User: What shape does this take?
Amino acid sequence: MTEQAGKLQESFFDPELDVWDPVPPPVEPGEDGSWGELSAEQSRIRAQAREVAERELRPWARYWDENEEFPARSLSAVRETGLLGLCVPAEYGGRGMGLFEGCLVVEELARACLSSAMAVQPFLNGPWRAVYVLGDDEQRRRLLPGVADGTRHFAIAMSEPGAGTAGTDLRAELRPDGSGFRLHGVKSWVTGGREADTTIVFCRAPGTVGPYGIGAVLIEGRPEGMAEPHVDPKMGIRGVAECTLRFDGVRIEPEDVLVMPEAGAKKGAEILVNQFNPERCGNAAMCTGLAQAALEASVGHLKARRQFDRPLADFQGLQWMVADMSLDVEVSRMLVWRAARANTSGFPPQRETVMAKLYSSEMVQRVTNQAIQIHGARGYSRRWPVERLFRDGRGLAMGGGTAEVMRNMLAAIALERRVSQRVPTS
Assistant: This one.
């Protein structure tokens, strides 16, 4: 940390302001009904994540946002706890825990700082899971130990300028070239692409369209033909950049093909859809943690602030707002826990995941918006945290699939009928 950064960070502390953002004491297992569903080990993991979040992440949350700086300090603090390798299988140096434990951690981290939670998410619920499930032994041995020890930063490149929600419209091509291939194309909105040293890039076989011919390749570092990432400035989660990546004939060796694009097959398209499910669960868990932070800040404000010679907490209209917020957060947590626990084959099931992602991403917008209203003018000020929570939560509603797409997917499951969104061609 530079001296200037230290001074900036210290300037964000103001006892007169911090009273409106109280930090509750850590909750011990057994005191909270939802904790009763956890094993002793899971409770320890959750408590460990909360402790590092309060001690190391919360004091820096505003700094990462104001300066749009990657939260390297936060990532280092979480690495020192051993939590980064929590979910990587033991044979590759991790602790071998499941998706559920990963979601417990990112929920607690997001409660303190969403940018920091987003920096940790790839190590717990991120693209490396695709390598473990879909890759071969050589790829697992080469790539997964670095995830376990926190030295390998993964990112995934799916979206393109013309292929966002319509993901199977991607145009990036993997063209045969001698004994290997050349990758051509542009990827957009690559979360963490600026810091990533390993990227999974979805692409297609030449001459294919739609769901046919899609595959994925692995790129390490910045090889020849790969331009430097272009960062898109954004509204929230400003500590973890969204990037555009350009590939102009990047050499891909056979051992770096994760899923071979096959002209007549839809296998890659199915993988493209399912690969996001662990990250969707993590996304929903972070929505829950962020909303929990907004709820706690609101409760603290209502207890401390007085108007008309009474605490705001005495007013029934505000009580009802807090009641609705509390219910929203708890339902979100239940849906996330169910989806994450249903993970049995590497990727959690579609139905439970979509329900958690859809509900949580809309819930966090409701709760953070209510928090601003409860705080009044303070809620709209950047000197208090709930304004940042609102901006950060809005981004979670788009990453990993919009609410509209989630509803289409859920309806298809319920109706047992998948309806194309495309205009029929004659």
User: Anything to note?
Assistant: The chain is about 50% helix and 15% strand.
